[in-house]
Design a protein that fits this description.
The complex is a heterodimer of chains A (156) and B (709).
Chain A (H helix, E strand, L loop, with lengths): L1 E8 L2 E8 L4 H8 L18 E4 L2 E4 L12 E3 L12 H9 L8 H14 L5 H7 L10 H13 L4
Parallel strand pairs in A: 1-5
Antiparallel strand pairs in A: 1-2, 3-4, 3-5
Helix pairs in contact in A: 2-5
Chain B lengths: L8 H8 L2 E6 L20 E5 L5 E5 L8 H13 L6 E5 L16 H28 L6 E4 L2 E4 L2 E7 H5 L3 E5 L24 H6 L14 E5 L8 E6 L1 H4 L5 E5 L2 E6 L2 H9 L2 E5 L10 H8 L4 E6 L2 H6 L3 E9 L11 E7 L2 E6 L4 H12 L6 E4 L14 H13 L3 E4 L2 H6 L7 E9 L5 E9 L14 E7 L26 H19 L3 H7 L4 H14 L12 E8 L2 E11 L6 E11 L6 H20 L5 E2 L2 E2 L17 E6 L18 H13 L5 E2 L3 H14 L1
Parallel strand pairs in B: 1-8, 3-4, 9-19, 15-29, 17-18, 21-22, 25-28
Antiparallel strand pairs in B: 1-2, 2-3, 5-6, 6-7, 9-12, 10-13, 11-12, 14-22, 15-20, 16-17, 16-19, 20-21, 23-24, 24-25, 26-27
Classes of the chains: A alpha+beta (156), B alpha+beta (709).
Amino acid sequence: MTTTIRFRLNGKPATLQTDGDRILLWVLRGDLGLTGAKYGCGIGECGACTVLVDRGAVLACQTPVQLVEGRDVVTIEGLASNGRLHPLQEAFVEQGALQCGYCTPGMILSACALLKKDPHPSRDAIVRGMEGNLCRCGAHQRIVAAIEAASKKAGA
Amino acid sequence: MSGAARLDRRRFLQLAGGGVAVFFGVGPSAFFAQERRGYPDDFNAYLLVGRDGRVTVFSGKIEMGQGVTTSLAQMAAEELGVSVGSVEMVLGDTDRCPWDAGTYGSQTTRMFGPALRTAAAEARLVLLGLAARKLGVPRERLSVADGVVSVTGDAKRRVTYGELADGKKIARAVGEKAVLRSVSEFQVMGRSPKRIDAPDKVTGRARYSGDFRPEGMLCARLLRPPAHGATRRSVDVTAAQKMPGVTVVERDDLVAVLHADPDAAGRALELVRADWNTPEATVDDQTIFEHLVRAGGPPQEKDSRGDLAAGRAGSARVFETTFRKGYVAHAPMEPHAAVAEPRGGRFTVWASTQTPFPTRDRVAKALGVDADKVRVIVPYVGGGFGGKSADLQAIEAARLAQITGRPVQVAWTREEEFFYDRFDPAAVVEIASGLDGAGRITFWDCTVHAAGERGATPTYDIPNLRLRSTGRMSYGDSSGSGGLHPFATGPWRAPGANMNAFAMESQVDVMAAAAGVDPLEFRLRNTKDARMRAVLEAAGKAFGWKPGKGPSGQGRAVACSVDAGSYDALVAQVRVDARDGTVRVERIVCAQDMGTVVNPEGAALQMEGSITMGLGYTFSEELRFRGGDILDRNFKTYALPRFSRVPAIETVLVKNDALPPQGGGEPAIVATGAVIANAVFDATGARVLRLPLTPERVLEAIAAAKKAG
């Protein structure tokens, strides 16, 4: 059933007229043209679709769009501010923490939520926090290093 | 713009707006003469220095994460004398790039790289010739830095590449004069600039095939059989047709529902009713090994030397072991996706494939149109590992676009990705080998079933040897294997070599322990190959190896391999919980000799990635199936390595500048299973002979070792 959904998207107000049961991932990728969030498994096992809702990590492939009503949604396209990369984005570039890049948006946003809860996590805490995100290219070691590096920078 | 004629040199230069172009080819082209019809046959890549001084390389290779966008740009920049930033790579576009067979087998750097460097060196010669005339000095007095040619010792007399190329229409084939820069002269190669693709990939700007959304695009979901080999008895699409916004296509084998929203298309697919004839399952993941040995046909001899019988007779001890491994999925994070757009009598297809040109031909054939009516564009590919050499999704999208007249996306679900994967085949390897009294290997008799021979020839000095193989490695659907496999198999990162190294290096470890010799020392004692000795010694040194015979109880081990021209030695440290059979890898050191290193960080990343991916086939990845029915269809039951599984991985590049660059995308994965299995033995005295090393198999092996005393 079509409803009106109002929320903030990458810092700006957004309004959607759509069926509230539709899956957030397809609304982002289709209706809103934000293709940074990726489909990987459709069952919440890989984390490629991760976006931030009220600064917490949410699996967009498991989320009906009506749940973002009144909330603040950030996708990878909205993470850089005023043309400046977020410290995590910088750290991923700096550490070479990616290969094919398909899991990267989800990795960065999961890490973002992790650092929000725990600004200076131990290595173990990073590993635990990132356990839900799969990377097939095997960039894990550098992803952990990138998150550590970003956590040491102010503003992460 | 259509027709292959556009790709001749003159047309190419016209289209490019002039400049200095060098055309080059890789290897003998006759082999592919049939496939490349319509494209010039004397080159398969070009490099252009434009009037803005920028360098563009056009190649049918693709970027799937392995970093070639950066490493190839480095090679071109080095030989031309420009910065990496001024080189643009145009990859995998069949309208803009010349014909290429595809990206696989760690060939891009090894085979394509030297040709690209030669072309860039040729372009530099041409530009230096132009500069010599312009500046009125002989070419020998000129030097190049960052795209600026100046008179040596008189830097004010200068001219830029852009000024030299402006207004020119020079097309050259690679000549004989160009001399490559030596390693000591390198300014761009041998360094590690940041990945060129990284900024796109951290911001979401990087586009993959499924991210292209032409106006009016429909998302398709296709009716799939419940199992491989199943045939359709009937189908009823009435209910799906009634759903608003749904287009149903029913054409021969193709039954699809299309909707602007992929989820709605998925719901429509659930309304399609179909009945199937599914053949009785004759094999499953437990009985497959017996089947492979039986059905593989008589062994074909692949290699032999010396006299096996004499070797066996002269052995103090003989060892016979059988190793097994199940089917493994590629499982790239990006499932196969394609978008096909019909426009003006042509079809543009964005597709995740490692083989843009063969894909173009297969799409054209499926559509019944000439190949020049199809343009395949391969944008960023979200992982391939050999699994994107097929392109069913591109053919499906193109056919649906042709039928509906609309742009169509076919983006496979994870379940489809598993179902249609061309799996790394299950395999059995039988090895008999012997030792003399001095701890030297006397003979080696190996039969590989279904894994192929890659990496099966021992890297040791063995006087008497036989290597045989059954059940040829099939690349394609299951029919290509003569019914050996119940579904399709294909190349998987270092095809067959992982299994062959697991078997070989386990067997060598068995012998080292039996001889009571330190396993690192045992390997050195049995090989005079200088490159192998160098990586073994480097890995041991970096690890801090302390000699001792196995099993030492420390949980450390070594294994080595040769693949794609590169040599690797791995040392692993594991901890085994003997109560529950779980294994924790704490540390892996990898020493690799890959010849001249183009990008050390990129090489290290490929080594780390290889080893991390290898943890999957080592510990958890083994497809469950019953006949043609794939039982594991998502990550809930088919477990890839997660963060908590990944140890500290240390990489060492063993310097070998005398050798041109060798393969880097595959070699380090090859001995990963072997080194961990050997480390489990060193920790427990128990040898697991079947991959993956599940806790159950580790416990069984421990129990068996205890029983054997």
